[in-house]
Amino acid sequence: MHNICTFRRIASVQRLDPFHHTACPSSSPSRLLDSGGNAPNVSRKIAHWFVPPVFVKTETGDRHGCNNARTALEQLKRWTRRGPRWHKAVTLCLSDLEGDPIDPQVVRKAFEAAAKEAKMYLSPE
Question: What is the DSSP letter of 57?
């Protein structure tokens, strides 16, 4: 585990965008996502799958089904509307990818709520 403030703690105190520097109470400023938009040290982590997938619109207008935290986070990074549900979904996706014991259905529900909030949600038909 690397020494990074959890988005959970920061977001509960401040509404911050995880793509920019944040003030960490216990260390110097750190980034939750690197310049490429990737969560540090999560590339080797296993994302837990959720069923059914959540379908969202992509920036090209295509339909994309997300069925794990990694693909959900990839979509969340592309959205311009970033409200409270977006922040919660990012937090849960990052936590899941870091190996925290999170029920995949909790991640799914948060991602679906964020998609609806951002007007990116598509019905499963």
Answer: E
